[in-house]
Amino acid sequence: MSAVGEGAAGERVSDMQHDGVLICDCDGVLIDSEAVAADVLVRELEARWPGVDARPVVMPLLGLRIERVLAGASDAAGRALGVADVDAIRRAVEAAAVNAPAVDGIAAALDALSLPIACASNSYRAYVEAALARTGLKRFFGERLFCADAVARPKPAPDVYLAAAHALGASPAQCLVVEDSTAGITAAAAAGMTVLGFVGAGHASPAQVDALRGIGARHVFDDMRELPGYVARWQATGAVLPH
Predict the structure, then answer these.
(1) φ, ψ at 195 (rounded to 5°)
(2) Using one digit for the tens of pLDDT, what is the confidence trace for 89-137?
């Protein structure tokens, strides 16, 4: 197990032996939950909106907070959702997603790293803690969990990434981020961090590769076994270069 998984909750980068900080999104990077979430969103919306094909309006919005996904889907479909509907759908999504498996290879990849690792998520902290605990990934993060319900603006705003860097005593230039969504990459890039795009989870599509590169991903990869190599190259050169 990586030594950083045992770090104290209050550790700052300046207090640790390090060559940078790795910050991972949760859904779609640590937990293979985005496809599960999409299926639940589509099912719940189509049950409320007869005759609407919800998948085309939901898929481009993945990575945003559920409330914003639902607002965007409502606008695109020209249908309304009440406050009770939004709350019920959010709970249904979280109940399904919290039982999703870890992304294939993520535990071994994190185990191979010796730098501080944090999580920055657009989900609620209670959900993130439950998902990481159930999959055994919580050991890599300790209390280094930064969630959208603790900042003023969720992704695609940079707030959660800036909060993570500040709490860890790191500058944005010291942070390497792994993200799977356009909202997340936009947020990390706006924070001034180097970003890797991951497309190996169950919800990824070929079109996503070009989309993620176009909004700021330095490199896009689909196999978590490659992550330690990218981290090492970034630590050595300050840039993650394509093969």
Answers:
(1) -125, 135
(2) 999 998 998 899 999 999 999 999 999 999 999 999 999 999 999 999 9
Banded pLDDT at 51 (limits 50, 70, 90): very high
Q: Is the pLDDT of residue 216 over 70?
A: yes
Preceding peptide of 156 cis, ω within 30°? yes
Q: Give the residue-averaged pLDDT of 145-167.
A: 96
Please count the CA atoms within 13 angstroms of the CA of 37 that sit on its side-chain side. Answer: 30
CA distance 5 to 1: 7
Q: Rounded mean pLDDT of 184-213? A: 82
Cα–Cα distances (Å) from 158 to 69, 123, 165, 189, in that order, read 18, 15, 11, 8
One-character DSSP codes across 84-137: HHHHHHHHHHHHHHTTPPBPTTHHHHHHT--S-EEEEESS-HHHHHHHHHHHT-
Q: Report which of 158, 123, 229, 168 is spatially closest to residue 7, judged by C-alpha positions.
A: 168
Token code pair at residue 22: 């790795």
Both tokens of 14, joined, read 């300046």
CA–CA separation, 163 and 170 (whole Å): 10
Q: With contact defined as beta carbons under 8 Å apart, do 175 and 194 qualify?
A: yes
Which tokens belong to 241?
């270069």
Between β-strands 145-147 and 194-198, what pairing exists: parallel, antiparallel or unpaired? unpaired
Q: What are the C-alpha distances in Å from 3 to residues 10, 174, 243?
A: 15, 19, 29
Tell if the pTM clears 0.85, that is, is over it.
no
